[in-house]
Amino acid sequence: MPPSSRITIRDVAVQAGVSIATVSKVLNQRYGVAAETSARVRAVIDELGYEASLVAQSLRNHRTNVIGILVADLEPFSTELLKGAADSIRGSGFELVVYSAGGRTGDQAGWEKRYLSRLSGTLVDGAVLVTPAVVLEALHGTPVVAVDPHTGPTALPTIDSDNLRGAQLATEHLLALGHRRIALLTGRPDLQSAQLRETGYRRALAAAGVPVDEDLIRVGSYDPDISRRSARELLTGPDRPTAVFAANDLSAIATVETASALGLRVPDDLSVVGFDNIPDSMLCTPPLTTVDQPIREMGRRAITLLIELINGGEPARTHLTLDTKLVVRQSTRAVAVPS
Amino acid sequence: MPPSSRITIRDVAVQAGVSIATVSKVLNQRYGVAAETSARVRAVIDELGYEASLVAQSLRNHRTNVIGILVADLEPFSTELLKGAADSIRGSGFELVVYSAGGRTGDQAGWEKRYLSRLSGTLVDGAVLVTPAVVLEALHGTPVVAVDPHTGPTALPTIDSDNLRGAQLATEHLLALGHRRIALLTGRPDLQSAQLRETGYRRALAAAGVPVDEDLIRVGSYDPDISRRSARELLTGPDRPTAVFAANDLSAIATVETASALGLRVPDDLSVVGFDNIPDSMLCTPPLTTVDQPIREMGRRAITLLIELINGGEPARTHLTLDTKLVVRQSTRAVAVPS
DNA sequence: CTGAAAGCGCTAACAG
DNA sequence: CTGTTAGCGCTTTCAG
């Protein structure tokens, strides 16, 4: 078949009666083209609606002014992050391509490495890796920033949020309200974020001198169904908790739903705090007390850091942990403190 | 400078002691390579972590199995659409790149044409254009689908939603509740969506025999600030409306805020319906009655249609208008019908 | 079975 | 000032 009827630089050259090189010079505003020639070429470019192929340019130049954001899938977390990234890309002179593995994360070596290899060196000047699940060493020459990596510490420059402190805040809040039987719905056991959130919970309890009741710790796995099941166990058991800290917003919502189904009112009969993975504005029915994770801000910072990395030198800080804060809404309530 | 230390097919060839051509054959599972050679090459590929450059492949092959989504910016509407697109890309064998103009929509010819030209023919097999604001004729060979184009009818295959009917539904709902003084906050006058929403409003009133009071129609422009101003005018004027239909969710929220600031309670003193451009779940404080625009579904359909277009023949329908429906929440209330 | 060579669209020396 | 030439990394004939 004909190699697509795309208009190429050659078409322009022929039409304008000049060489390909001359067209290229006009395109790139290089010196050494007669004003008249230049005008003619430009006229033809307009007439034909020609635009240089990004691909061909990438292959030739080693600078593209394009930043890549690599995500496993387009879901609430990653899309929220994209909005932040878009904020800081504006006016930076860079363009943005988002590459989505389309949920096919079961691949051999992981989408992270695969896409990074396929795109870097060509097409993008640098990349942001969103919640990579495998450990990646720094790559051959292409600047990479990781956002909220699910694995532990990484050699890569990283932007993450303070999971540990967030969990402590949440638990302390419940303690301050007088709660003593505080349950925990954990996250996915294999992810560091979940481990940190559990640690924060345990530390807060320990600091308050409240013994941990392992029966009050159930797996939520960042999953609505699993969380619903665990929540039901917690709330129907003997001596049920007066409060639940859910390591994830989906778990928190599942908890509220389950409580409601069991005839328990939130916050009158049960206080709930969730760890927020999706935008604040989406958490509303019912209003949940949450730990606010600054997703958009992480997106902004990741791009800023990446651009520093691309444009040269060593940035001041190559690992940034953003603060989390507690957003108190009406889903928690004080209880009588046992004397 | 050294052209980036990217690992190329050449590195693999050298390391394996074969020619570049042979490596390529192994990569593409072509016949005519000894099993032993093939194994050796594969070993080297693994060892080096080599992945073929997407860019170089694109330039050479004219099929990339990549679909492009071109957006002016990454905001609530476009990111919501992306989620839908991701849904239907899964398992399709295509990958997804999102290209964002980064808000720089003030360009000469419009980002739409520019990016389409830069990417088509190479890099992507087809593209989805999200809310293009200029009229584009079908392009040289590359399949393109437009989503919710802001201009009128287009030669391009299109997915949009039923703005007219949605607006009628909203207005009829308010009429059915007994409202007679129903204000309209319009959208951006230059966009067809806004015009259709206004037409729907007028038709519903006409059908009910309620005369249109032009004083109750104010410009909202899909913009919070402008909407707030207009809302204030409407609500502080003499003989204020008992209900407002806002042609856009941002306008609706602005209306509720303004009402609140003026001491009017929603829905007790004022009913509000908004046309939803952002996901249902984000509209919650306060709960707004809205017209639900199926954004994710549009994303899904757009990809499905595009893939049909790419894979060959003429699809059954090349222009699809999705239904909108009214979601009634507590921000509207019946009023006494004047006898 | 393997490799040399041409070329995808473009840019950057270098000649003319 | 302009055109010829040599690749960027890869795939694909087509000889060896």
Structural class of chain A: alpha/beta
Biggest interface, CB < 8 A? A-B, 59 and 59 residues
Strand order of the largest sheet of chain A: 2-1-3-4-5-11
* End-to-end C-alpha gap of chain A: 84 Å
The name CATH uses for the topology of the largest domain in chain A is Rossmann fold
Counted by DSSP, the helix tally of chain A is 11
What integer value in Å does the Rg of chain A equal?
A: 26 Å
Low-confidence parts of chain A, pLDDT < 50 over ≥5 residues? 280-284
**What sort of overall outline of chain A do the alpha carbons produce when their principal axes are compared?**
elongated
Q: What value does the average pLDDT of chain A take?
A: 86
Order of helices and strands of chain A: HHHHEHEHEEEHEHEHEHEEHEE
How would you describe the oligomerization state of the chains in this entry? homodimer
